[in-house]
Specification:
Layout (H helix, E strand, L loop, with lengths): L3 E5 L8 H16 L3 E6 L4 H7 L4 E4 L7 H18 L4 E4 L12 E4 L4 H4 L6 H17 L2 E4 L2 H11 L6 E3 L14 H10 L7 E5 L8 H12 L7 E5 L6 H7 L8 E5 L6 H6 L3 E4 L8 H8 L4 E3 L5 H5 L4 E2 L4 H12 L2 H15 L4 H22 L1
Parallel strand pairs: 1-2, 1-4, 2-3, 4-5, 5-6, 6-7, 8-9, 8-11, 9-10, 11-12, 12-13
Helix pairs in contact: 1-15, 8-9, 8-13, 11-14
Length: 380
């Protein structure tokens, strides 16, 4: 008999971001595969998850779960109680935290360990907490899920995690949501950005040191020097922090344009990615690189780095650069000046994106849940 899974979606933030896309894609695919599901969530997401997984028991927690400290406290006592109430056999925590006494087998997704490996400075308070919580999850979870082989290997190297207790489940992409856009979709996004058909380079992600946005800004400015119609740089995303971003922006010549639209709704992303001259993610570290895959699904030429799992996602279908500003400048200049190369990459990227599906990811998750139940029973 298949286990009943309690998926704790209470950590999904209001702007959803990568964690929200992961939970949404996984939950819908698990439902399609006939999984026995219960979902814990914030009140704002109750209807959404009910539509994504009809028949799943969706339980909204207290309103105060929107506050992080309250949510973490509830996870320690409220989540195990809920698991008992819904008759769960296994709890899946899709972020990096875990109840100390869950009373059931647990599966924790650890998306990346870049805070351990990346030497650049981070918010010290957040770093201390995330490192401690990740170590605890790696030590106490029945099984871990990593979104890539590279992240699995880093878990073993950095945290001395048991490789026999780690399952790799690559993220997928929803090809109905992330698709080649039509002209109207591209025009709507371009007009919303105030570009009105002007060419642009696209970035989507948080402004965190590992994302390497300052070097992207400097490299783009170098690549555009002397161009008669230089593309704008659009830095889209919802938050994060990197003190060097403003310093890099201060050096941008006056004839170049940077657009910072903040959060873009999902419905805008196909037009945003597909309408870009190049989509750029010159990151120093990722756990998977979901924006790269989503841009590929939208038929965009992509420039990224060979760091971590990014080559697992992009393969030969994307262009690569070193993360320094000069390397980014050289790579961008080549792509900006070569329309044929951009078309070739766009075609290859779209074709490769079909190798990744949420159904395949859900199948790997189900296998992990079953291993956790068996492993937990054997340890009793």
């Amino acid at each position: 008999m298949a286990p009943r899974i309690l998926l704790d979606a209470t950590a999904v933030p209001a702007d959803r971001g990568g964690l929200g896309r992961y939970v949404d894609g996984l939950l819908a695919a698990l439902h399609t595969l006939g999984a026995d599901l219960a979902v814990a969530c914030q009140r704002a997401d109750e209807q959404r998850y009910g539509l994504l997984a009809p028949g799943a028991r969706v339980v909204a927690g207290p309103a105060a779960l929107a506050h992080r400290a309250t949510r973490l406290a509830w996870e320690q006592s409220g989540l195990p109680h809920l698991a008992e109430r819904v008759g769960a056999d296994v709890i899946h925590l899709p972020s990096y935290t875990i109840p100390i006494r869950p009373g059931l087998p647990t599966v924790v997704t650890i998306h990346d360990v870049t805070l351990f490996a990346e030497p650049e400075p981070h918010d010290p308070l957040r770093t201390t907490y995330v490192k401690s919580a990740t170590r605890t999850a790696a030590r106490r979870a029945t099984r871990l899920i990593a979104p890539s082989r590279a992240t699995r290997d880093e878990l073993v190297r950095v945290l001395d995690a048991d490789p026999d207790h780690i399952d790799v489940a690559c993220h997928g992409v929803d090809h109905q949501v992330f698709h080649r856009p039509d002209e109207d979709e591209v025009k709507r996004v371009s007009d919303r950005l105030g570009l009105h058909g002007r060419p642009y380079l696209a970035y989507l992600g948080a402004l965190e040191p590992r994302k390497n946005v300052p070097n992207l800004i400097r490299g783009w400015a170098q690549a555009c020097a002397g161009l008669p119609d230089p593309p704008a740089l659009v830095l889209a995303g919802s938050g994060g922090w990197d003190d060097e971003v403003d310093a890099a922006l201060a050096t941008v010549p006056l004839d170049l344009r940077v657009v910072r639209p903040g959060y873009l709704p999902w419905s805008s992303l196909p037009g945003f990615f597909g309408g870009a001259l190049v989509v750029t993610l010159p990151s120093r570290g990722e756990g998977f690189g979901l924006p790269v895959l989503e841009a590929m699904a939208c038929g965009a030429p992509v420039l990224t780095t060979r760091r971590g799992p990014l080559p697992e996602v992009g393969g030969d279908a994307v262009a690569y650069t070193e993360p320094d500003a000069d390397g980014i400048a050289t790579a961008l200049a080549e792509l900006i000046g070569d329309a044929n190369r951009r078309r070739e990459l766009a075609e290859a990227a779209h074709a490769r994106s079909h190798r990744f599906s949420w159904q395949a990811s859900a199948e790997a998750h189900l296998a992990s849940y079953e291993r956790a139940v068996t492993q937990y029973a054997a340890s009793r």
